[in-house]
Amino acid sequence: MKRFLLFLLALCLALPLQAAEDYRDIKWEVLVPKGWDPSKELKALDLGKLQDSDPRAMEALEKIRQMWDNAPTDPALAGAKVRLPGFAIPLENKGGKVSEFLLVPYFGACIHTPPPPANQIIHVVTKKPLAKLLTMDTVKVSGTLSLHSASTPWGNAGYRLTLDTMESFNPAPPPEDKRRR
User: Fold this and answer.
1) Mean pLDDT by 10 residues, the chain (181 residues)
2) Which of 40, 56, 70, 84 lies deepest, with the highest CB count within 10 Å?
3) In a domain, 118, yes or no
4) What local confidence, expressed as pLDDT, does residue 172 receive?
């Protein structure tokens, strides 16, 4: 009986450690299906020679917007348990608590137009509302991805992540020789 209790105790202690390791760290590029190139249809058009008011420029802009709003997702990621950093954009705030937010790859995305392609916006749904989540907070989320599109005032999301855990994220600055000048 004593061995059995020790086994149960060891199992209980090991489960949280195992659960933390179940998430695959991914980069934003993984969300883009291989071979998707939204610019290939526009390569014949020399945008540098067009004025903003040119109907061809307006048509090209509309075409890009449609391609980005309908950007394909990668079916291989459906059900994947992933972890990735990004910037939060709360979708609702009830009593200082957020239960849904967008996760985007770079600062200012969706706040300034145009938003990123749909396959670069994740609609995060929490199990419990989160306190003190502000616009453009840098976070690292862990959860399960699904291929579920959502249209929001800030942009169209191609993925949904059911949140398991979230932590603050402060990336290290790039090495001196890799910094943009």
Assistant:
1) 44 48 93 89 76 84 88 97 97 93 93 87 96 94 97 96 94 70 56
2) 84
3) yes
4) 72
Q: Is residue 18 part of a domain?
A: no
Looking at the domain assignment, is residue 158 inside a domain? Answer: yes
d(CA 159, CA 110): 15
Structural domain contains residue 1: no
SS (H, E, C) the chain: CHHHHHHHHHHHHHHHHHHHHCCEECCHHHHCCCCCCCCHHHCCCCHHHCCCCCHHHHHHHHHHHHHHHCCCCCHHHCCCEEEEEEEEEECCCECCEEEEEEEECCCCECCECCCCCHHHCEEEEEEEEEECCCCCCEEEEEEEEECCCEEECCEEECEEEEEEEEEECCCCCCCHHHCCC
What pLDDT shows up at residue 9?
42
- Expressed as residue numbers, the domain containing 144 is 25-35+53-170
Give pLDDT, residue 88: 96
Question: What length does the chain have?
Answer: 181
The predicted pLDDT at position 4 comes to 39
The pLDDT of residue 14? 46
Residues 110 and 102: their CA atoms lie apart, in Å, by 9
Specify the amino acid at residue 50.
L
